[in-house]
Amino acid sequence: xxxxxxxxxxxxxxxGTRAVLxxxxxxxxxxxxxxLLGASGxxxxxxxxxxxxxxxxxxxxxxxxxxxTVVFQEPRLIPSRRVLGNVxxxxxxxxxxxxxxxxxxxxxxxxxxADAWPxxxxxxxxxxxxxxxxxVREPELLLLDEPFAALDALTRxxxxxxxxxxxxxxxxxxxxxxxxxxxxxxxxxxxxVLRDGALVRDQSVAVEHPRDPADPAFAALxxxxxxxxxxHREPAPQHAN
Amino acid sequence: MSAVSTEQARAAGxxxxxxxxxxxRPRGVSxxxxxxxxxxxxxxxxxSSATGVLTPDVLASPGQVVQAVGELWGNGQxxxxxxxxxxxxxxxxLFGAGAGLVLGVVTGFFRLGEELLDSAVQVLRTVPFLAxxxxxMVWFGITETAKIALIGVATSFPMYVSASGGVxxxxxxxxxxxxxxxxxxxxxxxxxxxxxxxxxxxxxxxxSMTLSVIALIAAEEINSTEGxxxxxxxxxxxxxxxxxxxxxxxxxxxxxxxxxxxRVLERLxxxxxxxxxxxxxxR
Lengths: 241, 283
Prior knowledge:
The complex is a heterodimer of chains A (241) and B (283).
Chain A: E1 4-15, E2 18-29, E3 33-37, H1 44-51, E4 59-63, E5 68-71, H2 83-87, H3 95-107, H4 123-135, E6 141-145, H5 153-170, E7 173-178, H6 181-187, E8 190-195, E9 198-204, H7 216-228
Parallel strand pairs in A: 3-7, 3-8, 5-6, 6-7
Antiparallel strand pairs in A: 1-2, 1-4, 8-9
Helix pairs in contact in A: 3-4, 4-5
Chain B: H1 6-11, H2 27-50, H3 62-74, H4 77-109, H5 111-125, H6 133-140, H7 144-168, H8 172-180, H9 185-220, H10 228-237, H11 241-269
Helix pairs in contact in B: 3-11, 4-5, 4-7, 4-9, 4-10, 6-7, 7-9, 8-9, 9-11, 10-11
Protein name (chain B): ABC transporter permease
Family (chain B): Belongs to the binding-protein-dependent transport system permease family.
GO cellular component, one term (chain B): plasma membrane
């Protein structure tokens, strides 16, 4: 039995009369990468926000590690602080912190932009700064809330590789909330699908690394996940990823 | 999924995430809390009057003030004074805030407007409006015009500063998008700029309303023959601290009413804004 990083039992969250999360049970092991899929408004972001202490649970048990960080859909950088200042925001000041901040920026390929203002960064660069800000805190749980959704397709692919790479190196437990099925299969050890307040699927990704969309196992899982999300289409779509 | 019991998870060092509790006080409680401060002041006043710490020649007791209100209301003096003063304040505010609004929008939206007008208005803005009282007396005499003009000058500048700042902060991308849909400049101002600047405009209005009361006092202290300021001047001559207290309370209540009016306006004019300024959480 592996040590847990996230432990959720019977989680309920109700908005008005609608139970967005209706009795969720979820475990994430240490170092495990879980992708949570769901259509818009199914409560996947709510689940992430509850794990990140940004929202409260109405019922149920939720346990998470003390060290956890969030990367949001938008970078959410403070415009009045330089990139390095944004990465180390809230950490004790000092040369050591600046050094770890610079190292984190180097890891995401932004070493040259440490003294830039956030407004001068492109969308992908800003999101990489947000990623460095999350990693510099050495989280045991990394919460990714559709972090690639606002990026262009090429930047998104590069960012996905970067995130996969960094997660393999640092081994935090990761919850990635997304509605991009390919992204989920590419990155995750396990995928779960949230629908009508419950997890309708929770399975390991058995596709071998490096994961290739042309792999039949990839395509089969992709089809199954899309069907869970209510998208039914003929097999073998023509667009390459 | 490996089956881990909650106890084991706790033993592994996991903690419950603590979301900051939403400050969801019921409306009634919130209102009660708001009235607590003024009530405490009133109680302190009553207690010091009753125990003799506050003698009537310094300040009348709350009971005497209520009597004075009854007396002034009974002989119609209060109603007359109120309507005169409120008319002055309202007219001055209308002209002043209106001028400030127009100038502010012009300087905020048009680069040329800013270059031409802003420095001139900034120079005028630094002149204390009280310094204009003698000049206005010379220009207009002891007339209503002098008083309304003074209030107008005093109230125009906060509105100008707020309006130009609010307009300057307009979302340029939104303006660009609307231009691409063929909206004229006037339509852009109407549809995008003014609604976007409304929070700034309303905070400017709040400042202007406060200043309108202050300017009203200044204007009425000088050679008035009617209005609340006149009532005060008379009360001063006869050492009627109860009437003075009534007038001061009225000025205070005017400020409170102005604030309440702006709050109501905020709710009416900006229905798209989340209630109580609290952000709506994502799904």
